[in-house]
Amino acid sequence: xxxxxxxxxxxxxxxxxxxxxxxxxxxxxxxxxxxxxxxxxxxxxxxxxxxxxxxxxxxxxxxxxxxxxxxxxxxxxxxxxxxxxxxxxxxxxxxxxxxxxxxxxxxxxxxxxxxxxxxxxxxxxxxxxxxxxxxxxxxxxxxxxxxxxxxxxxxxxxxxxxxxxxxxxxxxxxxxxxxxxxxxxxxxxxxxxxxxxxxxxxxxxxxxxxxxxxxxxxxxxxxxxxxxxxxxxxxxxxxxxxxxxxxxxxxxxxxxxxxxxxxxxxxxxxxxxxxxxxxxxxxxxxxxxxxxxxxxxxxxxxxxxxxxxxxxxxxxxxxxxxxxxxxxxxxxxxxxxxxxxxxxxxxxxxxxxxxxxxxxxxxxxxxxxxxxxxxxxx
Length: 378
Prior knowledge:
Blueprint: E1 9-11, E2 14-16, H1 18-38, H2 50-63, H3 71-84, H4 87-97, H5 107-117, H6 124-132, H7 142-153, H8 162-173, H9 177-186, H10 200-245, E3 291-292, H11 304-309, E4 313-316, E5 329-334, E6 337-342, H12 354-359, E7 371-374
Parallel strand pairs: 4-7
Antiparallel strand pairs: 1-2, 3-4, 5-6
Helix pairs in contact: 4-5, 7-8, 8-10
């Protein structure tokens, strides 16, 4: 690297001799050499932008104390760029500058050579077309959208209208209907009421403010809906408890005391007493016949075979007679043999024992699709 020559320097405290300047040069060169050793930079990615890499490289030089415009610092930046730019870019710039030697070029001339090699290939027309069609992506923040617009506009050569172009594209591609209506109402002429220029930052702040307000409103609405569901569920449960509490002990229905109970003149077929239905009979302990059906029975006109096949799980329950009141009996014919059976209008099927099966002729048994379980799984 070149050395600054010996000279007299006039300072605030007087005149410095040439030997003092030489000592200063040596200290400067030593400090510069230390900064060069401490410097590092990533190689240039040819898929990226040379303009971005160049600006980042110059910024690194300034941070590391190599940003001065002295001959020594300028030569140091040139040598560091050639050392860190990468093998492929270095080869390209050497071939591009033949027969000149890139090691003897100035730093600025070297930058111009790289700019020529990595000049963007797309035209301004295509760059502007891509910019004008740019839309905010789903879940993309407003700030990220602005950054992406600026990156696209950098190749459009908009000059002084750069910010205005980005501002207008932001307003047109934001995909935020409420904001688009608001901006047209607030700034119909594209400028402030005092005729000052409408800034990009103004509409960016407005968009973020409206977005926060909408989110807060949505959160509040969701909370209100949750509270409403809880209230409705509580109300329904209260109604069910009230209905159970107000059930008539004679008929099992809910009705006012002033209304005549429909079971008051009815005879219970279980205990043969008048004044209540069998379902509310207290003379015996009845375990209801339960049935679990996995399929909906929407068609009441289906025949017995189809309906029986749809029964998935039958529970055959035991009926205990506390007061030994005679059971309701009916006589039915099974395989042309008369059989006396208990009458139970709530049962969907009946089970007979092995003795009765033999008595009616031991008819052939077919596999049943239903599962029969007695009370207590017996």
